[in-house]
Amino acid sequence: MTDGPQILLTNDDGIDATGLQVLRDALTDVGSVTVVAPADDRSAVGRSMSDTVRIHEREHGYAVDGTPADCVVAGLASLAPETDLVVSGVNGGANLGAYTLGRSGTVGAAVEAAFWNRPAIAASMYIPVGEDLSAAAVTTDPAAYREAVRATRFLVENAVEAGVFDRAGYLNVNAPMADGDPAGMRVTRPSTVYDMDAVRDGSDLSLKDRIWERMADDDVPDPEDTDRRAIMDGAVSVSPLTAPHTTEHHDALDALATDYDSSA
């Protein structure tokens, strides 16, 4: 334990995941870390919430039979109420594009923290699609997370004091796999490119996210300022995002509401 912020660390890959372990080790040099993470893999559950969860004390924190959002609520309301900053990750796999934000348990934990008015960082590592690359081998290799850990630690040490969270509710960080020279960092926005497909085979439907295949072929038409383009260029992507989501005034909807009131 060291002087510094009180950090609540969670993820969606489970408390035993390599990405969480290497990030925990790095952040213990920055502040006091309390781990509250799912007992098992809860990937792609978004902000799903449970009514009751069982908590198991572990050597390095608390394992929760629940979702990442459960872990954040359990941590901030009970297990680590003095938390200054919530960190979620490092996820074994990228969370790129606007359409992934509601699906990702990693990002969901950061969004949940933002509703508690706690600054939060969601951190993920991009794993390229390829026949010569085993995702399982990458996600269990501590060295692969080096770039994601370096970027996350840098932001934990500097973002709050710099005033980043005066406007951002949370940061969605995506880093390339560590490979040679350190990567640069770009401030980005989530890509709006969307390429989901459904392929039917009799009574079965396979839902496919074609983006990953297109990324493998460098065939994604993402502008320079997007998260996916940054990753494709080998840079760390940092998207400053808000929660609750912003709304805009709509004259057309105002007119419909007036018409509805007069139609009774």
Structure description:
The structure is a single chain. The chain is of the alpha/beta class and 264 residues long. It has a single domain (6-192, 220-262), classed as 3-Layer(aba) Sandwich (Stationary-phase Survival Protein Sure Homolog, Chain: A). It has helices spanning 18-27, 68-79, 105-115, 135-139, 146-158, 211-216, 227-232, 251-262, and strands at 6-10, 32-38, 55-58, 61-64, 85-92, 120-126, 170-176, 185-187, 196-201, 204-209, 236-241. It has a nine-stranded mixed sheet, sandwiched between helices. Helix 1 crosses helix 5 and helix 2 runs parallel beside helix 3 (105-115). The mean pLDDT is 93. Its cofactor is a divalent metal cation. A divalent metal cation binds at residues 12-13, 43, 91. One of its GO terms (cellular component) is cytoplasm. Belongs to the SurE nucleotidase family.
Report the mean per-residue pLDDT as an integer. Answer: 93
N-to-C SSE series?
A: EHEEEHEHEHHEEEEHHEH
What is the CATH superfamily?
A: Survival protein SurE-like phosphatase/nucleotidase
Integer-rounded radius of gyration: 19 Å
Largest sheet data: 9 strands, mixed
Which structural category do the helix and sheet elements fall into? alpha/beta
Low-confidence stretches: none
